Amino acid sequence: GQNIDQPTEMTATEGAIVQINCTYQTSGFNGLFWYQQHAGEAPTFLSYNVLDGLEEKGRFSSFLSRSKGYSYLLLKELQMKDSASYLCAVSEVTGGGNKLTFGTGTQLKVEL
Amino acid sequence: ETGVTQTPRHLVMGMTNKKSLKCEQHLGHNAMYWYKQSAKKPLELMFVYSLEERVENNSVPSRFSPECPNSSHLFLHLHTLQPEDSALYLCASSQARSARRDSPLHFGNGTRLTVT
Q1: Shortest CB distance from A102 goes to which of B42, B55, B104?
Q2: Mean pLDDT for the stretch of residues B8-14
């Protein structure tokens, strides 16, 4: 099975940078996803890392280290609208196909 | 517009009722999913349909019954639910997922279900 760990809550200031960490333990690793979920809305896809390194997409970047079982999501130039829950999800190849397991999510609050 | 629409958005039902949740995807995907999201818990996979065939049933109680009549539509039939089944039920779709590279899920806004 998988064990995914991410902080429950974080608070940051508008305009600042925040890093949300995610650690995992799995076999048959097939990539790690980050999703953003605003209250009462659908989770939306932010990033996917399957190789080590940093993927940059505008204000958001995601990093992966497979050997350490570690990823982070980096949000720059924070805006109030970035207040949301950020879900880390790990994909694992099993006999039945790809299995996606979600963490509990990190609730980010952006303050003035 | 998420490309995945779910109805109803909110549902209140008694334990003896029968109701159905509906999901429709407009993205041309060939796999559809039901997830349960409860407070303080990770998203829980309930059912997976790939090419309209159920490929996974994650030990879900029989009071939840899925139906996938075609690749664009997915239903979750509910009967004799318990109060602990109250949660947000999310539908998602994706393209085929390979062992070398996975594909992202596209979620609907969910149905907020309350069982009284």
Answers
A1: B42
A2: 95
